[in-house]
Amino acid sequence: MRVNKGFTLIEILIALAVFAIMATLTSSAMYYAFNTRSRVTEQAERLVDLQMAIIMIERDTEQITSRPVRGNEMRLFPAFTGQPLYLEFTRGGLTNPYSVEKKSSLRRIAWLCKGDKLIRRSWDALDAVNRNNYHDKTLLENIKNCKFAYLDQNLQVLPEWRESSVSSPGNTPTLPKAVQLKIELGDWGTATFLFILPEGLYAKIV
Questions:
Q1: Domain 51-204 has CATH 3.40.640.10
Q2: Per the UniProt record, which residue ranges are transmembrane (predicted)?
């Protein structure tokens, strides 16, 4: 008559060791899969944010118009001001079909690199009494570096755009030919975008 013997201690220990190894491998695989999926989702969301920011800048610059504004004790601000970290201009093309009150189709817009953020700034009134009353919207975060530049009529890249500093005999420059935006995202490296202005006019003095 055969006698059924139970598992020996060594067999139990081996089984436990194999189970522990399998559990560790499974846990590591699940963690890696979850972490990879999380990173893919994060990168996809970051790409969407970048695309939205570029689309908004493109829409704004496509509607640039050469219209100076007044504000803060009737001080005159140029139609277009460009600095390495700050860009401000007047844009058109806005409609208010459902507004009872008739409003201008023009809007004063600014884009600024502030810290690790790319921000779009807007004012409710074109000629604002107090220019400190504005609305900021963050379009991009976690930026390592951000800088604007400006192309003149000779396609020379300038770090700043001021009407007085780029004037030439017989011409009064109002708008650059294009705006360049260089962004360093850290994880993606550096990307450069060029926004061609619709007119880039240099009005002749008659």
A1: no
A2: 12-34
